[in-house]
Amino acid sequence: MSMDRDLSQDLLEQVNQALNLGSALRIQGSNSKAMLGRAVAGEVVDTRGHRGIVRYDPTELVLTARAGTPLREIEAALYEAGQMLPCEPPHLGTEATLGGMVAAGLSGPRRPWAGSVRDYVLGIRMITGHGKLLRFGGEVMKNVAGYDVSRLMAGSFGCLGLLTEVSLKVLPRPRQCLSLRLPMTRHQALAELAEWGQQPLPISAACHHGDALYLRLEGGEGSVQSARQRLGGEELDSRFWSDLREQRLGFFAAPAPLWRVSLPIATGELELPGEQLIDWGGAQRWLTSTAPAALIREQVAQRGGHVTGYAAGDDSSAPLPAALMRYHRTLKQQLDPQGVFNPGRLYPDL
User: Fold this and answer.
1) Model-level pTM?
2) What is the mean pLDDT of the chain?
3) Burial class for 320, CB neighbours closer than 10 Å (0-12, 13-18, 19+)
4) Is the backbone of residue 259 left (phi > 0), alpha (psi -120 to 50) or beta?
């Protein structure tokens, strides 16, 4: 019996024991995303023992690894082959795992230009709430059998099943990368980004922080240098983007509660109390504010967006529309009928 099978069977036995006892399970890897969603009571299922890259073929741009594999190990293997995870997922901790990356579904500064975590999930192996270890999807884009189930796991926060293995599409690293700092106000930055979004500029990250707009240009040498001459500004250390992704910028050290605001790409300025940082070219705003959660949610909803609170156990999710909640409940009932996996993490009755 292989190590992979042994480890999968250990997790499967733990799930089946919980099903027989009618008890809940709290799935976690390194717990680096614990501040998101509600607190969960239940027996801990620690995926970190179920680790390791199973298959990686750089010529096929596909990597398969067990859910407990640290992201740093995956990124090191990709870097050696001149490749990367295009969605630039935040770790938010030194031991962040692949399973946690998929379960949280969080993407970094490249998200609007390269896609989300969900877009790169090719297939999964997971233990369902029926006590079965199943495979969904495959290792190539053309194999679409069950592909939607694989993608549904991205951003599910472990509420639909226990991931044991994930296959991902990866991409080559850009040939050239250059970061710029352009002094301007937030209002000016939003106007410029709206205009540049209609033009063939090789922008792969855009953030306004303080009194400046920060841009990252990626692509061929000619296109990057041409854009650099057109845009002006001063060159910036590329570590800015990892500091943004990992919330190491001074902005994130503020004592006020932290909120992530998602908005339509062309949304103008938000008149909200507190301090704001613009990311994703305007589609994502970070807000530190002591304003009531209801006020923040109401104003963001009026602009067609939604809000997530970044505080441990915070009940910050806005109620879903009735039709969408029905889909959530139906999906939960199909994959986890006894509600054993992370009950209440996303919503009180799911």
Assistant:
1) 0.92
2) 91
3) middle
4) beta
